[in-house]
Design brief:
With 239 residues, this protein is α+β, with helices and mostly antiparallel strands. The chain contains 7 helices and 12 strands. The longest helix has 29 residues.
């Protein structure tokens, strides 16, 4: 269940948010949305794979945390074992909303049923005693803005990938140290051969649009697949 409300410094003056990591806070997920504008930061920690939206031709990019639903190999009890949290995960329980008419600037909304809503004096305040935003809320607003802008800009990025036929199907099957087999299926990756084969005019157009760097960052992120397998083996071995 969700219950969204426009964040308000009067109605939510005493509201506190849990900022730690834990399965019960929604961190036990296999993957989370990422946007091209953050690929440089994401690729240093997580594989980036692309997946077609169910029943649609649209693609999204995902930062991968595990091999099966509910598995996050970067979650160690209450510790987040990576130097970065993708924006779509870091903003919970907040989201960008639009006015009823759909026009106008975005609004900060909050899901009042989210498990990060704290009780009993726990967590970080959103507003101070004077109703002013705390540094934590300022940081959340900045992240929301970055994610919203990145999501809006991503349409042109995916249009370019499709226009140049730069996505290829990808699947991975790994035999782990205990003999079990884990798989990733139904994903796509950048077709590196086709990308490198593009002529100077095409590459120039992609570069001018700002698409080349995130494409190569997505390719670079694939080196994190072996690290993800290693994490899985350590988890199976109790390490």
């Amino acid at each position: 269940m969700t219950r969204h409300a426009v964040l308000d410094n009067k109605a939510h003056n005493d509201l506190r948010i849990r900022t730690d990591a834990a399965a019960e806070l929604g961190d036990d997920i296999m993957a989370t949305l990422t946007v091209p504008s953050e690929f440089r930061r994401v690729q240093a920690h997580f594989p980036i794979l692309f997946r077609r939206e169910t029943g649609r031709d649209d693609f999204t990019a995902l930062a991968m945390f595990g091999f099966q639903n509910g598995e996050n190999l970067f979650l160690e009890g209450t510790r987040w074992d990576a130097g970065y949290r993708p924006l779509s995960l870091a903003i919970g329980p907040f989201l960008i909303g639009r006015p009823a008419g759909g026009e106008g600037p975005g609004q900060v909304h909050i899901d009042m049923e989210h498990p990060r809503i704290a009780g009993g004096g726990e967590g970080v305040r959103l507003f101070d005693e004077n109703g002013m935003a705390t540094p934590y809320l300022d940081e959340i607003a900045e992240r929301l803005g970055d994610l919203d802008e990145g999501y809006r800009e991503s349409r042109a990025f995916y249009d370019a990938l499709l226009a140049y036929d730069l996505l290829e199907p990808f699947s991975l099957e790994v035999t782990l140290d205990d003999g079990s087999v884990n798989s990733l299926v139904g994903f796509h990756i950048i077709d590196e051969a086709k990308l490198r084969a593009l002529d100077a005019e095409a590459l120039g157009a992609l570069h001018a649009a700002g698409h080349v760097m995130p494409m190569f960052m997505a390719l670079a992120s694939l080196s994190q697949l072996s690290a993800l397998v290693a994490r899985k083996n350590r988890r199976l071995g109790g390490g």
